[in-house]
Write the structure tokens for this entry.
Amino acid sequence: MSSTGRTIPGWVLPVGVGAIVVALVVIALLRGPVTLDPDSPEGTVQEYLLAVSEDRWNDALDVVHEDWRGSCEGSDIEMFDQGDFTAELGSPDALGGFEVSQGFEADPGDDSGVAPTMPEVTTLVEVTIQHVEGGGLASAWDEYVAFELSDDGEFWWIVGDPWPYFLWNCRSN
């Protein structure tokens, strides 16, 4: 008995794989930024970073706990404006894209000038900030930041001195 089946040409498989790769790249490029749940630690950090990137300094301060921001104003963040940047949850050390560390307790230390009644830091959200200035490889760099957050039962607040680090400047005045 002889088989009279057709054979698939050798070019079909590479072309099919290439088409799938192109389709995945197009989907990735067309997909907009992810909007995180605003009631989550990650969503609070996203809200803060969006406000900073859009020069909405007072909106950025609105998610910093009032005990931490003290008398700071939006212009205090603006003074430390980092220029254009993008942000992504996670750092090179985090597997799966981002890391949220629950149950973290920070000790502000005796020399920080922080009153002992400050909210307890319960969560860290790691973020990679990609800076871009001008053009070329030498004008782009990454910065890894861990945002400290506290949950008061109704809202996740940024506590500590969030990136770009500015609270030290206005709190010391």
